[in-house]
Amino acid sequence: MPDQNRPAFWPVARAERMGRGMIRVHLCSAAFLVEIVTSMLCPAFAQSAPAESGPHRERTIGEIRVEAIRRAEVGQYPLIGLDPADVKEAFENIHTSDKDEWAAAFMHVGDRYFNEAKALEKADPQKANADYVRAWHLYSFGKWPFPGSPGKQRSYEKSVEAFLDHAKFYDSLLEVVHIPFQDKEIAGYLRLPKNARGPVPLVIAVNGLDSRKEDLTESFAAILSFGIGYLAVDGPGTGQSPIKVSPTADHMLSRVIDYAQSRPEVDKSRIAMHGVSWGAYWATKMAIVEHARLRGCSAQSPPIDKFFQKDFLMNSLLGNREYLFDQVPALMNVLEGVHTLAEMADFLPKMSLVQEGLLGKPMAPMLVIAGVLDTQVPIDDEYLLLSKGDVPKDAWINPRGGHLGRQVGVWPDPLIFKRVIIPWLGKTLEAAAN
Predict the structure, then answer these.
(1) Who has the most CB within 10 Å: 77, 337, 339, 366?
(2) First CA to last CA across the chain, in angstroms?
Protein backbone atom coordinates (compact mmCIF):
# COMPACT_ATOMS: atom_id res chain seq x y z
CA MET A 1 0.00 0.00 0.00
CA PRO A 2 1.27 3.51 -0.73
CA ASP A 3 2.89 5.38 2.15
CA GLN A 4 -0.01 7.19 3.81
CA ASN A 5 2.38 9.73 5.32
CA ARG A 6 3.56 10.88 1.93
CA PRO A 7 2.12 14.27 0.93
CA ALA A 8 -1.03 14.01 -1.15
CA PHE A 9 -0.41 14.08 -4.87
CA TRP A 10 -2.47 15.78 -7.53
CA PRO A 11 -3.67 12.69 -9.25
CA VAL A 12 -3.77 12.98 -12.64
CA ALA A 13 -3.56 15.07 -15.21
CA ARG A 14 -5.08 16.39 -18.27
CA ALA A 15 -6.95 14.79 -21.12
CA GLU A 16 -5.71 16.23 -24.40
CA ARG A 17 -7.27 15.84 -27.84
CA MET A 18 -4.99 14.15 -30.37
CA GLY A 19 -7.32 14.01 -33.34
CA ARG A 20 -9.07 11.04 -34.96
CA GLY A 21 -10.99 10.27 -31.78
CA MET A 22 -7.88 9.85 -29.64
CA ILE A 23 -6.88 11.35 -26.32
CA ARG A 24 -3.76 11.34 -24.22
CA VAL A 25 -4.19 10.93 -20.49
CA HIS A 26 -1.24 11.67 -18.22
CA LEU A 27 -1.30 9.91 -14.85
CA CYS A 28 1.23 11.04 -12.32
CA SER A 29 2.10 10.91 -8.63
CA ALA A 30 5.14 11.37 -6.48
CA ALA A 31 5.92 7.73 -7.14
CA PHE A 32 5.33 7.30 -10.85
CA LEU A 33 4.56 8.90 -14.17
CA VAL A 34 2.66 7.00 -16.80
CA GLU A 35 1.48 8.23 -20.16
CA ILE A 36 -1.28 6.36 -21.88
CA VAL A 37 -2.44 6.95 -25.43
CA THR A 38 -5.71 5.34 -26.34
CA SER A 39 -8.24 5.42 -29.14
CA MET A 40 -11.85 6.09 -28.30
CA LEU A 41 -12.72 3.60 -31.03
CA CYS A 42 -11.22 0.64 -29.18
CA PRO A 43 -11.23 -0.58 -25.59
CA ALA A 44 -8.45 1.20 -23.73
CA PHE A 45 -5.68 -0.68 -21.99
CA ALA A 46 -5.19 -4.08 -23.57
CA GLN A 47 -5.69 -5.84 -20.24
CA SER A 48 -8.29 -8.44 -19.67
CA ALA A 49 -11.07 -7.70 -17.22
CA PRO A 50 -11.26 -9.78 -14.03
CA ALA A 51 -12.28 -13.38 -14.51
CA GLU A 52 -15.65 -12.58 -12.96
CA SER A 53 -16.65 -9.99 -15.57
CA GLY A 54 -19.32 -10.56 -18.17
CA PRO A 55 -22.75 -12.18 -17.87
CA HIS A 56 -23.08 -14.57 -14.94
CA ARG A 57 -25.80 -16.07 -12.84
CA GLU A 58 -26.42 -14.45 -9.48
CA ARG A 59 -24.57 -15.92 -6.52
CA THR A 60 -26.39 -18.46 -4.41
CA ILE A 61 -26.94 -17.60 -0.76
CA GLY A 62 -24.06 -19.91 0.14
CA GLU A 63 -21.76 -18.13 -2.30
CA ILE A 64 -22.92 -14.75 -0.99
CA ARG A 65 -22.04 -15.85 2.53
CA VAL A 66 -18.50 -16.86 1.57
CA GLU A 67 -17.90 -13.72 -0.47
CA ALA A 68 -19.42 -11.37 2.12
CA ILE A 69 -17.22 -12.76 4.88
CA ARG A 70 -14.16 -12.51 2.65
CA ARG A 71 -14.94 -8.89 1.83
CA ALA A 72 -15.45 -8.07 5.50
CA GLU A 73 -12.06 -9.60 6.28
CA VAL A 74 -10.25 -7.47 3.69
CA GLY A 75 -12.31 -4.30 4.12
CA GLN A 76 -13.90 -4.46 0.67
CA TYR A 77 -17.14 -2.77 -0.34
CA PRO A 78 -19.96 -3.20 0.61
CA LEU A 79 -18.63 -4.59 3.90
CA ILE A 80 -16.20 -1.82 4.83
CA GLY A 81 -16.42 -1.29 8.57
CA LEU A 82 -18.19 -4.56 9.39
CA ASP A 83 -16.58 -6.99 11.79
CA PRO A 84 -16.21 -10.41 10.09
CA ALA A 85 -17.34 -12.09 13.33
CA ASP A 86 -20.60 -10.11 13.26
CA VAL A 87 -21.15 -11.03 9.61
CA LYS A 88 -20.56 -14.72 10.35
CA GLU A 89 -23.00 -14.54 13.26
CA ALA A 90 -25.71 -13.00 11.08
CA PHE A 91 -25.26 -15.65 8.39
CA GLU A 92 -25.92 -18.38 10.95
CA ASN A 93 -29.58 -17.33 10.67
CA ILE A 94 -29.71 -16.95 6.89
CA HIS A 95 -30.60 -20.14 5.01
CA THR A 96 -32.55 -18.87 1.99
CA SER A 97 -32.63 -15.87 -0.32
CA ASP A 98 -35.69 -14.46 1.48
CA LYS A 99 -35.16 -10.70 1.91
CA ASP A 100 -36.85 -10.48 5.29
CA GLU A 101 -34.81 -13.40 6.60
CA TRP A 102 -31.67 -11.54 5.54
CA ALA A 103 -32.79 -8.32 7.21
CA ALA A 104 -33.85 -10.06 10.43
CA ALA A 105 -30.48 -11.77 10.78
CA PHE A 106 -28.48 -8.56 10.50
CA MET A 107 -30.92 -6.61 12.65
CA HIS A 108 -30.63 -9.27 15.36
CA VAL A 109 -26.87 -8.73 15.62
CA GLY A 110 -27.21 -4.97 15.24
CA ASP A 111 -29.81 -4.75 18.00
CA ARG A 112 -27.30 -6.08 20.51
CA TYR A 113 -24.90 -3.22 19.83
CA PHE A 114 -27.66 -0.64 19.59
CA ASN A 115 -29.18 -1.61 22.93
CA GLU A 116 -25.75 -1.70 24.57
CA ALA A 117 -25.01 1.77 23.20
CA LYS A 118 -28.23 3.16 24.66
CA ALA A 119 -27.32 1.75 28.07
CA LEU A 120 -23.76 3.15 27.94
CA GLU A 121 -24.37 6.66 26.59
CA LYS A 122 -23.72 8.36 29.94
CA ALA A 123 -21.44 5.83 31.62
CA ASP A 124 -19.09 5.22 28.67
CA PRO A 125 -19.77 7.59 25.75
CA GLN A 126 -16.79 6.36 23.73
CA LYS A 127 -17.96 2.74 23.86
CA ALA A 128 -21.54 3.80 23.17
CA ASN A 129 -20.45 5.68 20.06
CA ALA A 130 -18.48 2.67 18.80
CA ASP A 131 -21.51 0.45 19.37
CA TYR A 132 -23.76 2.82 17.45
CA VAL A 133 -21.35 2.66 14.51
CA ARG A 134 -21.37 -1.15 14.56
CA ALA A 135 -25.16 -1.19 14.75
CA TRP A 136 -25.43 1.32 11.89
CA HIS A 137 -23.19 -0.77 9.62
CA LEU A 138 -25.08 -3.97 10.42
CA TYR A 139 -28.49 -2.42 9.89
CA SER A 140 -27.26 -0.81 6.67
CA PHE A 141 -26.10 -4.15 5.32
CA GLY A 142 -29.42 -5.62 6.47
CA LYS A 143 -31.17 -3.45 3.87
CA TRP A 144 -28.52 -4.02 1.16
CA PRO A 145 -28.58 -3.47 -1.74
CA PHE A 146 -31.97 -1.76 -1.38
CA PRO A 147 -34.95 -2.00 0.99
CA GLY A 148 -37.06 -4.20 -1.28
CA SER A 149 -39.15 -5.86 1.45
CA PRO A 150 -40.79 -4.79 4.74
CA GLY A 151 -37.92 -6.29 6.72
CA LYS A 152 -35.24 -4.57 4.66
CA GLN A 153 -37.15 -1.30 4.93
CA ARG A 154 -37.19 -1.68 8.72
CA SER A 155 -33.46 -2.39 8.69
CA TYR A 156 -32.88 0.76 6.65
CA GLU A 157 -34.91 2.83 9.11
CA LYS A 158 -32.89 1.41 11.98
CA SER A 159 -29.67 2.24 10.15
CA VAL A 160 -30.70 5.91 9.93
CA GLU A 161 -31.64 5.93 13.62
CA ALA A 162 -28.33 4.37 14.70
CA PHE A 163 -26.36 6.72 12.46
CA LEU A 164 -28.02 9.81 13.92
CA ASP A 165 -27.32 8.52 17.43
CA HIS A 166 -23.67 8.13 16.39
CA ALA A 167 -23.67 11.62 14.88
CA LYS A 168 -24.51 13.10 18.30
CA PHE A 169 -20.87 12.38 19.18
CA TYR A 170 -19.44 14.44 16.30
CA ASP A 171 -17.25 17.32 17.45
CA SER A 172 -19.24 19.73 15.26
CA LEU A 173 -22.97 19.81 14.82
CA LEU A 174 -24.71 17.70 12.22
CA GLU A 175 -27.84 19.54 11.12
CA VAL A 176 -30.66 17.56 9.55
CA VAL A 177 -32.14 19.83 6.90
CA HIS A 178 -35.46 19.57 5.09
CA ILE A 179 -35.54 21.31 1.71
CA PRO A 180 -38.98 21.89 0.14
CA PHE A 181 -39.20 20.37 -3.32
CA GLN A 182 -42.41 20.27 -5.34
CA ASP A 183 -44.96 19.01 -2.80
CA LYS A 184 -42.38 16.96 -0.88
CA GLU A 185 -38.99 17.58 0.72
CA ILE A 186 -35.34 16.67 0.30
CA ALA A 187 -33.66 15.46 3.48
CA GLY A 188 -29.98 16.19 3.94
CA TYR A 189 -27.17 16.35 6.47
CA LEU A 190 -25.26 19.62 6.75
CA ARG A 191 -21.98 20.04 8.61
CA LEU A 192 -19.86 23.16 8.74
CA PRO A 193 -16.34 23.61 10.12
CA LYS A 194 -16.08 24.58 13.77
CA ASN A 195 -15.24 28.20 14.53
CA ALA A 196 -15.54 29.23 10.89
CA ARG A 197 -15.09 32.92 10.25
CA GLY A 198 -17.32 34.12 7.49
CA PRO A 199 -19.00 32.09 4.74
CA VAL A 200 -17.28 28.77 3.95
CA PRO A 201 -17.01 26.73 0.75
CA LEU A 202 -19.33 23.73 0.54
CA VAL A 203 -19.40 20.32 -1.16
CA ILE A 204 -22.76 18.77 -2.05
CA ALA A 205 -22.27 15.00 -1.83
CA VAL A 206 -24.51 12.51 -3.67
CA ASN A 207 -24.50 8.77 -3.00
CA GLY A 208 -24.56 5.82 -5.36
CA LEU A 209 -27.02 3.03 -6.09
CA ASP A 210 -26.75 1.21 -2.76
CA SER A 211 -24.84 3.63 -0.51
CA ARG A 212 -26.67 6.40 1.32
CA LYS A 213 -26.15 9.96 2.52
CA GLU A 214 -25.16 8.54 5.91
CA ASP A 215 -22.10 6.88 4.32
CA LEU A 216 -21.03 10.11 2.62
CA THR A 217 -21.60 12.11 5.79
CA GLU A 218 -19.16 9.89 7.63
CA SER A 219 -16.56 10.02 4.84
CA PHE A 220 -16.73 13.77 4.34
CA ALA A 221 -16.01 14.54 7.99
CA ALA A 222 -12.37 14.59 6.87
CA ILE A 223 -12.94 17.67 4.72
CA LEU A 224 -13.94 19.90 7.64
CA SER A 225 -10.29 20.45 8.60
CA PHE A 226 -9.80 22.11 5.19
CA GLY A 227 -12.31 24.77 6.16
CA ILE A 228 -14.93 23.22 3.86
CA GLY A 229 -18.46 22.25 4.85
CA TYR A 230 -20.61 19.62 3.19
CA LEU A 231 -24.23 18.77 2.54
CA ALA A 232 -25.02 15.10 1.89
CA VAL A 233 -28.25 14.10 0.16
CA ASP A 234 -29.68 10.85 -1.20
CA GLY A 235 -29.63 10.81 -4.99
CA PRO A 236 -32.86 10.30 -6.95
CA GLY A 237 -34.43 6.90 -6.32
CA THR A 238 -32.40 6.13 -3.20
CA GLY A 239 -32.81 6.52 0.53
CA GLN A 240 -35.10 9.39 1.50
CA SER A 241 -35.10 11.02 -1.93
CA PRO A 242 -38.54 12.38 -2.85
CA ILE A 243 -38.30 11.32 -6.51
CA LYS A 244 -36.96 8.49 -8.65
CA VAL A 245 -34.52 8.58 -11.55
CA SER A 246 -35.78 10.27 -14.71
CA PRO A 247 -34.28 12.57 -17.35
CA THR A 248 -35.52 15.57 -15.32
CA ALA A 249 -34.51 14.36 -11.85
CA ASP A 250 -31.52 16.73 -11.86
CA HIS A 251 -34.03 19.45 -10.91
CA MET A 252 -33.92 18.02 -7.40
CA LEU A 253 -30.19 18.71 -7.16
CA SER A 254 -30.62 22.20 -8.59
CA ARG A 255 -32.98 22.80 -5.68
CA VAL A 256 -30.25 21.60 -3.31
CA ILE A 257 -27.88 24.18 -4.82
CA ASP A 258 -30.59 26.83 -4.31
CA TYR A 259 -30.77 25.87 -0.67
CA ALA A 260 -27.00 25.87 -0.20
CA GLN A 261 -26.76 29.35 -1.69
CA SER A 262 -29.51 30.54 0.65
CA ARG A 263 -27.50 29.69 3.75
CA PRO A 264 -25.57 32.73 5.03
CA GLU A 265 -22.82 30.45 6.40
CA VAL A 266 -22.03 29.22 2.87
CA ASP A 267 -19.94 31.05 0.28
CA LYS A 268 -22.32 30.82 -2.68
CA SER A 269 -19.47 31.34 -5.15
CA ARG A 270 -17.54 28.32 -3.84
CA ILE A 271 -19.83 25.30 -4.11
CA ALA A 272 -18.73 21.97 -5.56
CA MET A 273 -20.39 18.60 -6.01
CA HIS A 274 -19.11 15.07 -5.47
CA GLY A 275 -20.82 11.92 -6.67
CA VAL A 276 -20.23 8.19 -6.35
CA SER A 277 -21.25 5.88 -9.22
CA TRP A 278 -24.89 6.84 -9.90
CA GLY A 279 -24.19 9.93 -7.83
CA ALA A 280 -21.26 10.56 -10.19
CA TYR A 281 -23.71 10.57 -13.08
CA TRP A 282 -25.61 13.35 -11.34
CA ALA A 283 -22.38 15.20 -10.51
CA THR A 284 -21.39 15.06 -14.19
CA LYS A 285 -24.79 16.21 -15.41
CA MET A 286 -24.83 19.03 -12.86
CA ALA A 287 -21.34 20.09 -13.98
CA ILE A 288 -23.02 20.84 -17.29
CA VAL A 289 -26.50 22.13 -16.46
CA GLU A 290 -25.29 24.08 -13.41
CA HIS A 291 -21.81 24.99 -14.62
CA ALA A 292 -22.38 28.66 -13.76
CA ARG A 293 -23.10 27.88 -10.10
CA LEU A 294 -20.60 25.09 -9.40
CA ARG A 295 -16.89 25.71 -8.89
CA GLY A 296 -16.14 22.07 -9.74
CA CYS A 297 -17.38 18.48 -9.62
CA SER A 298 -15.61 15.25 -8.70
CA ALA A 299 -17.12 12.04 -10.06
CA GLN A 300 -16.21 8.43 -9.27
CA SER A 301 -17.05 6.10 -12.18
CA PRO A 302 -19.86 8.15 -13.73
CA PRO A 303 -22.13 6.35 -16.23
CA ILE A 304 -22.19 8.43 -19.40
CA ASP A 305 -23.48 6.55 -22.46
CA LYS A 306 -22.43 2.91 -22.99
CA PHE A 307 -23.65 1.99 -19.50
CA PHE A 308 -27.19 2.87 -20.54
CA GLN A 309 -27.29 0.69 -23.64
CA LYS A 310 -29.11 -2.65 -23.78
CA ASP A 311 -25.99 -4.62 -24.67
CA PHE A 312 -24.21 -3.51 -21.50
CA LEU A 313 -27.25 -4.25 -19.37
CA MET A 314 -27.63 -7.76 -20.73
CA ASN A 315 -23.95 -8.70 -21.04
CA SER A 316 -22.29 -6.97 -18.08
CA LEU A 317 -24.82 -5.99 -15.41
CA LEU A 318 -26.95 -9.13 -15.17
CA GLY A 319 -25.28 -11.34 -12.57
CA ASN A 320 -22.29 -8.99 -12.27
CA ARG A 321 -19.81 -10.54 -9.82
CA GLU A 322 -17.94 -7.35 -8.93
CA TYR A 323 -21.29 -6.37 -7.38
CA LEU A 324 -22.13 -8.72 -4.51
CA PHE A 325 -25.65 -9.53 -5.71
CA ASP A 326 -28.83 -8.06 -7.22
CA GLN A 327 -27.36 -5.11 -9.11
CA VAL A 328 -30.07 -5.15 -11.77
CA PRO A 329 -32.99 -5.36 -9.28
CA ALA A 330 -31.38 -2.53 -7.29
CA LEU A 331 -31.04 -0.45 -10.45
CA MET A 332 -34.60 -1.19 -11.53
CA ASN A 333 -35.82 -0.05 -8.13
CA VAL A 334 -34.50 3.51 -8.56
CA LEU A 335 -35.96 4.10 -12.05
CA GLU A 336 -39.25 5.92 -12.46
CA GLY A 337 -42.04 3.69 -13.79
CA VAL A 338 -39.81 0.68 -14.49
CA HIS A 339 -40.91 -2.77 -13.34
CA THR A 340 -39.54 -5.26 -15.89
CA LEU A 341 -36.23 -5.93 -17.61
CA ALA A 342 -37.75 -4.97 -20.96
CA GLU A 343 -38.97 -1.65 -19.56
CA MET A 344 -35.55 -1.08 -18.09
CA ALA A 345 -33.82 -1.69 -21.42
CA ASP A 346 -36.14 0.88 -23.02
CA PHE A 347 -35.75 3.43 -20.24
CA LEU A 348 -32.00 3.53 -19.65
CA PRO A 349 -30.91 5.00 -23.03
CA LYS A 350 -32.98 8.10 -22.22
CA MET A 351 -30.50 8.85 -19.39
CA SER A 352 -27.44 8.87 -21.66
CA LEU A 353 -25.74 12.26 -21.62
CA VAL A 354 -25.10 11.75 -25.34
CA GLN A 355 -28.78 11.14 -26.10
CA GLU A 356 -29.69 14.13 -23.94
CA GLY A 357 -27.39 16.27 -26.07
CA LEU A 358 -25.37 17.45 -23.08
CA LEU A 359 -21.93 15.95 -23.59
CA GLY A 360 -19.52 18.51 -25.02
CA LYS A 361 -21.42 21.54 -23.73
CA PRO A 362 -19.75 24.05 -21.36
CA MET A 363 -19.16 22.53 -17.95
CA ALA A 364 -17.53 23.18 -14.61
CA PRO A 365 -14.02 21.82 -13.94
CA MET A 366 -14.06 18.11 -13.22
CA LEU A 367 -12.08 15.35 -11.58
CA VAL A 368 -12.93 11.96 -13.08
CA ILE A 369 -11.95 8.91 -11.00
CA ALA A 370 -12.18 5.41 -12.43
CA GLY A 371 -10.68 1.95 -12.73
CA VAL A 372 -9.82 0.36 -16.07
CA LEU A 373 -11.08 -3.03 -14.85
CA ASP A 374 -14.47 -1.70 -13.75
CA THR A 375 -17.20 -4.15 -14.81
CA GLN A 376 -20.08 -2.04 -13.46
CA VAL A 377 -19.46 1.16 -15.43
CA PRO A 378 -17.46 0.75 -18.66
CA ILE A 379 -14.15 2.62 -18.74
CA ASP A 380 -15.11 3.69 -22.27
CA ASP A 381 -17.66 6.02 -20.67
CA GLU A 382 -14.91 7.82 -18.75
CA TYR A 383 -12.68 8.20 -21.80
CA LEU A 384 -15.66 9.57 -23.71
CA LEU A 385 -16.30 12.13 -20.98
CA LEU A 386 -12.63 13.12 -20.87
CA SER A 387 -12.49 13.62 -24.64
CA LYS A 388 -15.47 15.98 -24.92
CA GLY A 389 -15.73 19.70 -24.39
CA ASP A 390 -13.22 22.55 -24.47
CA VAL A 391 -12.05 22.65 -20.83
CA PRO A 392 -9.33 20.17 -19.74
CA LYS A 393 -10.41 17.77 -17.00
CA ASP A 394 -8.39 16.12 -14.27
CA ALA A 395 -8.47 12.33 -14.25
CA TRP A 396 -7.33 9.69 -11.78
CA ILE A 397 -7.44 6.41 -13.69
CA ASN A 398 -6.23 3.27 -11.90
CA PRO A 399 -5.02 0.73 -14.51
CA ARG A 400 -5.58 -2.09 -12.00
CA GLY A 401 -8.68 -0.65 -10.39
CA GLY A 402 -12.28 -1.75 -10.49
CA HIS A 403 -15.41 0.26 -9.78
CA LEU A 404 -14.67 3.73 -8.35
CA GLY A 405 -10.99 3.07 -9.03
CA ARG A 406 -10.73 0.88 -5.93
CA GLN A 407 -8.08 -1.84 -5.74
CA VAL A 408 -8.14 -4.23 -2.78
CA GLY A 409 -5.12 -3.82 -0.53
CA VAL A 410 -3.63 -1.03 -2.66
CA TRP A 411 -6.27 1.63 -3.27
CA PRO A 412 -9.19 1.00 -0.89
CA ASP A 413 -12.07 3.46 -0.86
CA PRO A 414 -10.92 5.48 2.19
CA LEU A 415 -7.44 6.01 0.73
CA ILE A 416 -8.79 7.25 -2.61
CA PHE A 417 -11.00 9.63 -0.69
CA LYS A 418 -8.16 10.90 1.49
CA ARG A 419 -5.39 11.10 -1.09
CA VAL A 420 -7.29 12.02 -4.25
CA ILE A 421 -10.78 13.43 -3.75
CA ILE A 422 -10.37 15.71 -0.72
CA PRO A 423 -7.14 17.35 -1.96
CA TRP A 424 -8.71 18.06 -5.36
CA LEU A 425 -11.82 19.57 -3.82
CA GLY A 426 -9.71 21.62 -1.44
CA LYS A 427 -7.64 23.02 -4.30
CA THR A 428 -10.70 23.64 -6.50
CA LEU A 429 -12.54 25.48 -3.74
CA GLU A 430 -9.40 27.44 -2.85
CA ALA A 431 -9.69 26.34 0.75
CA ALA A 432 -6.87 26.58 3.28
CA ALA A 433 -6.44 23.71 5.74
CA ASN A 434 -6.99 24.65 9.36
Answers:
(1) 366
(2) 27
pLDDT digits (tens, 9 = 90+) for 162-180: 999 999 999 999 999 999 9
Return the percentage of the chain with pLDDT > 90, whole number. Answer: 84
Q: What is the mean pLDDT of residues 288-312?
A: 98
| Spatial separation of the C-alpha atoms in residues 332 and 326, rounded to whole Å | 10
> What are the strands of the beta sheet with 229-233, ordered from one edge?
175-181, 184-191, 229-233, 200-206, 266-276, 296-300, 366-371, 394-398
Burial class (CB in 10 A: 0-12, 13-18, 19+), 261: middle
CATH 3.40.50.1820 domain extents, the chain: 26-54+171-428
The angle subtended at Cα 144 by Cα 107 and Cα 207, nearest 5°, is 120
244 pLDDT band, cuts 50/70/90, is very high
In 92-124, alpha helices (H): 99-120
The Cα 107–Cα 103 span in angstroms is: 6
**Stated pTM of the model:** 0.87
pLDDT tens figures, 179-229: 999 999 999 999 999 988 889 999 999 999 999 999 999 999 999 999 999
Beta pairing, strands 184-191 & 175-181: antiparallel
> Would you say 325 and 148 are in contact if contact means Cβ atoms under 8 Å apart?
no
Is the CATH number of domain 26-54+171-428 3.30.565.10? no
Q: Which CATH class is domain 61-163?
A: mainly alpha
- C-beta separation of 429 from 201 below 8 A: yes
Neighbouring CB atoms inside 10 A of 205's CB total: 28
